[in-house]
Amino acid sequence: MSIHLERSSGPLAVSSAVRDPPAPSNRPIDVLSPGEQIRSSVGVSDGKDNMTARRAAVIAAASGPAAILVGDLFLGPIGALAIVGVGVAIGWRFVPDFWRTFLRAAIAGGFAGVLVLGPGYRLAMRIVAILDESTTPEFTIEGTMFLVVGIGLVFGGITTTWVTLITKTYAARRPVAVSVLTVVVISTLFLDSEVFRELTDLGLGPVVNVPMFLGVTVGWAWLADRWARPTREPLSADAELVPVP
């Protein structure tokens, strides 16, 4: 349906038209317009499909913590792997561009963890030990490797993977994604009794310790999300993109 208004009096004719929006394009991705490619790259769809993708992303992301909290404690290692497998299968089936997002986020989070998270935490811990009169600062290769590899590479990569699945599917902007990553990592730190004691009791106390660890975490989270989602800021999931002729 189209509405056409025309006025032809005078030396110039003025014409305007309101037309129906063009039908969605079914062309392959390599021939889509830039706007359509952006929409495809962030996994944004409409209506029921979009809601299904969001729910699947949440289930896939929740399978990681569920495997640790439920599977490993009550079902054993095989049960934990089964929970993760079900989450990955659901994400693969319903989340657009699942494996590309999964692998890119894992690499981005792990690499950023090796560069920022692990070394940054090691430096912050050394500062806490130096400022605390009751402890003798010690530097060990084993402790450093645990922070760089265990915390930075492994934990950083896993956390970035699951969080990015949700923030990308929900088209969250970078400040939101960075905040979620930061909260997840800091919350995990506080669950460890030894780290919690170091943050609150040693050195100059939480007034100095917490901002140091928080600053390292925010820096890592920004870099990890920047590499995991290197394109422009994602659009709103409710936005309608019209193919560009």
* Mean of residue pLDDT values: 75
Q: Which band does the percent of strand residues land in?
A: under 5%
Count the beta strands: 2
Shape: globular
Helix and strand string, N-terminal first? Answer: EEHHHHHHH
The strands making up the biggest β-sheet line up spatially as 1-2
Low-confidence stretches: 1-19, 27-46, 233-244
Percentage of helical residues?
A: 55-70%
Query: How far apart, in Å, are the first and last alpha carbons?
Result: 19 Å
Would you kindly provide a written description of the structure presented here, covering whatever features stand out?
By secondary structure, this protein is mainly alpha-helical. The chain has helices at residues 34-41, 47-94, 98-131, 141-169, 174-191, 193-200, 206-228; strands at 3-7, 14-18. A two-stranded antiparallel sheet has the order 1-2. Strand 1 and strand 2 form a beta hairpin. Helix 3 (98-131) packs antiparallel against helix 7, helix 4 (141-169) crosses helix 7 and helix 5 packs across helix 7. The longest helix has 48 residues, at 47-94. The radius of gyration is 24 Å and the shape is globular.
